[in-house]
Design goal:
Strand content: under 5%
Helix content: 55-70%
Structural class: mainly alpha
Number of strands: 0
Largest sheet: none
Shape: globular
Number of helices: 7
Distance between the termini: 62 Å
CATH class: Mainly Alpha
Length: about 130
């Protein structure tokens, strides 16, 4: 049996999510014990904030679906949708949360291109 909290590769395989998303979960949690806590039923303020930050970074920087994020953090997709929306609001008002979510975004940005970068249409030069 594979221990899903052992490594990003194990989590990606067991939860059926992209490896980049698993790496993001491990970056947020810090270690395998932290991943177990992040994926636990716990509702502490710090854990919930970490989950919201993961949802925001995974959605905006990886383009992950709500279902994928939910499988990675052991939550239903509807909980992830709410967490993502809360994270967007918190980024505007909470400097500590903004720094946490920016740090996660930086870990992703080093490996991938931001989702919005490939969605912007190129402007054609005027002839």
């Amino acid at each position: 049996m594979i221990d899903r909290n052992e490594s990003p590769e194990a989590l990606a395989q067991v939860a059926n999510v992209p490896i980049e998303l698993s790496r993001l979960v491990f970056a947020a949690a810090g270690c395998s014990e932290g991943v177990a806590l992040l994926r636990s039923p716990g509702r502490g303020e710090i854990l919930v904030g970490q989950r919201h930050a993961v949802a925001w970074a995974a959605r905006d920087y990886l383009g992950a679906t709500y279902e994928q994020i939910g499988r990675a953090i052991n939550r239903d997709h509807s909980v992830v949708v709410r967490g993502y929306n809360v994270a967007r609001r918190m980024r505007k008002t909470d400097p500590e949360f903004r720094e946490l979510s920016n740090a996660l975004a930086r870990t992703v940005a080093g490996r991938t291109v931001a989702r919005t970068a490939h969605r912007r249409p190129r402007r054609e030069a005027a002839a």
